[in-house]
């Protein structure tokens, strides 16, 4: 427990900077990206900041140094304030007749541009979904022209296409009757939010499928090295500002809904962001309630990133289980699914 040597003093300085950044990140969800674009970028780094501070705490613990208290206090505060990055246990209850399962999946246009060297991607996704049989299926970046996809097992659907020549968009498939549908259009982008009101037994449930503005980051190492950091940060900040505008449009629509509600989709932002806090509102994050592990939903090599979500109101639903299918590599996203029962 003696004094620090020169190397440990330098390590503790770095530790102090990163602990301060993590502490700052806890209040970022309250800063609108339109006015704090640069600060909002920090929300993307929260998972790595948490992991690094855990490593610092372990380093000082092994050296029996009181400096471990800094990272430990910041991590403990974050756990009670923001929740945990890693879920140590989840639920594994099997589905019963009175429950419904909901899956959200960004299918990346079913790989029509061959980002993945697999010509059968559309067929593989169809087979996967047929195997899991979610009652309600929300797809982002849906493309209708891949002839290998087959969702004919679903009796009802709502598809809203956008982009150039209406080539792609969002889709909701349901085993329950759909009695009403609609779209929330976002300006100057093919991204949007759609909804379908489905009827299960005596209940009408609104299912939203939302896809916020992409950050357009190429996650390949070589491509990242080529990026001008200042231009990249500016681009991300601009995308975050667009996400805020899209979120405000979505919330204005959401606030008019009187039905029980489930929100699914790809927010293109983390659980430590402004848009996550606003869209989630009083709803439960089904991963936090019943998930397991890091819940990684985006295929980013450097640290776990969770940007796909399913929210449900605990006043209306019991969250029975949650699963991230991170062995499915048919897109740059992984599918997620929750099982819910109605109160």
TrEMBL record:
Its cofactor is Mg(2+); Mn(2+). Pfam families: Exo_endo_phos. The chain crosses the membrane at residues 12-31, 37-62, 69-86. GO terms for molecular function: endonuclease activity; hydrolase activity; metal ion binding. The keyword Transmembrane applies. It comes from the Bacteria. InterPro entries: Endo/exonu/phosph_ase_sf, Endo/exonuclease/phosphatase, TDP2-like. Residues 103-333 form the Endonuclease/exonuclease/phosphatase domain. GO terms for biological process: DNA repair. Gene3D superfamilies: Endonuclease/exonuclease/phosphatase. Keywords: DNA damage, DNA repair, Endonuclease, Hydrolase, Magnesium, Membrane, Metal-binding, Nuclease, Transmembrane, Transmembrane helix. This is Endonuclease/exonuclease/phosphatase family metal-dependent hydrolase. It comes from Formosa algae.
């Amino acid at each position: 427990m003696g004094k620090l040597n020169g190397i440990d003093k330098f390590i503790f300085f770095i530790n102090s900077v990163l602990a301060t950044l993590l502490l700052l990140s806890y209040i970022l969800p309250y800063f609108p990206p339109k006015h704090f674009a640069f600060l909002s970028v920090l929300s993307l780094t929260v998972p790595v900041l948490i992991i690094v501070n855990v490593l610092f705490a372990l380093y000082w613990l092994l050296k029996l140094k009181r400096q471990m208290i800094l990272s430990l206090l910041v991590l403990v505060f974050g756990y009670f304030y923001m929740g945990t990055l890693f879920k140590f246990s989840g639920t594994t209850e099997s589905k019963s007749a009175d429950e419904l399962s909901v899956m959200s999946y960004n299918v990346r246009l079913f790989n029509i541009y061959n980002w993945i060297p697999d010509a059968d991607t559309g067929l593989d996704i169809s087979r996967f979904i047929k195997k899991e049989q979610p009652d309600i299926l929300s797809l982002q970046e849906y493309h209708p022209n891949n002839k290998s996809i087959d969702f004919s097992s679903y009796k009802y659907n709502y598809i809203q296409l956008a982009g150039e020549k209406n080539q792609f968009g969002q889709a909701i498939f349901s085993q329950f009757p759909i009695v009403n549908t609609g779209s929330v259009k976002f300006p100057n982008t093919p991204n949007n939010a759609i909804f379908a009101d489905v009827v299960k037994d005596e209940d009408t449930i609104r299912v939203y499928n939302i896809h916020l503005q992409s950050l357009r980051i190429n996650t390949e190492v070589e491509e990242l090295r080529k990026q001008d950091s200042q231009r990249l940060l500016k681009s991300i900040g601009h995308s975050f500002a667009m996400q805020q505008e899209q979120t405000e449009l979505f919330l204005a629509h959401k606030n008019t809904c009187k039905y029980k509600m489930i929100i699914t989709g790809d927010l293109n932002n983390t659980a430590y962001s402004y848009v996550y806090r606003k869209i989630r509102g009083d709803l439960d994050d089904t991963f936090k309630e019943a998930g397991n592990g890091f819940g990684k939903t985006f295929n980013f090599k450097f640290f776990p990133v969770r940007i796909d979500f399913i929210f449900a109101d605990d006043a209306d639903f019991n969250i029975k289980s949650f699963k991230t299918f991170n062995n499915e590599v048919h897109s740059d996203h992984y599918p997620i699914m929750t099982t819910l029962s109605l109160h």
